[in-house]
Design a protein that fits this description.
Layout lengths: L2 H6 L3 H4 L1 E5 L5 E2 L12 H4 L3 E5 L3 E10 L12 E8 L4 E7 L11 E11 L6 E9 L1 H4 L24
Parallel strand pairs: 6-8
Antiparallel strand pairs: 1-2, 1-3, 4-5, 4-7, 5-6, 7-8
This protein binds zinc ion.
Zinc ion (ZN) binds next to loops.
């Protein structure tokens, strides 16, 4: 399957439609019709519910790409990350609008829809999700001079500020 076909035929790539197993609660993206987690797969048949991902998540793992894939030549270096979404599924995507040096594990991001790549000769443009730094991450408090900024937590939700 070519990349072009892949994107065309998977509309959930555009709207982050996932599925959740109502037996064990596991969420999947792209959506599944059978739960691969439940010991008896057949039991989950018909129990998968549509789940809309919020697009919110945090960087779980990432790599800085210096050697571009075809169609990405203008964008190097770029950051390709595994993002653990709030709902659970891990998505692969480019992290944009941030310098690669500022990306770290635990960085909170938000999915955003962008042009993915242009196909060389045909000029077909593909759109899909990328990740931008979450707004609350941008608003991270700036420590006054002489004080150190606490390290961001790598895992788990932050406690709500009171
Ligand atoms: Zn399940």
């Amino acid at each position: 399957m070519t990349i072009a076909r892949f994107w065309r035929e998977t509309p959930q790539r555009y709207n982050l439609g996932a599925s959740r197993c109502s037996s064990c609660g596991s969420a999947f993206f792209p959506p599944r019709v059978v739960c691969p987690v439940c010991p008896e797969h057949r039991r989950s048949l018909g129990k998968m519910e549509p789940l809309q991902l919020s697009g919110e998540g945090e960087v779980y793992s990432f790599t800085v790409v210096h050697d571009p894939a075809e169609g990405f030549e203008m964008q190097v270096p770029y950051v390709l990350a595994l993002v653990k979404t709030r709902e659970g599924p891990i998505l692969t995507g480019q992290v944009v609008d941030v310098s690669p040096g500022d990306v770290h594990v635990g960085l909170r991001v938000q999915a955003t829809f962008r042009k993915l790549r242009e196909e060389g000769k045909s000029g077909v443009i593909h759109y899909g999700y990328k990740f931008a730094v979450a707004r609350e991450e941008v608003r991270e408090p700036v420590a006054p001079e002489g004080e150190s900024v606490p390290e961001p937590r790598a895992e788990g939700p932050r406690p709500a500020r009171t």
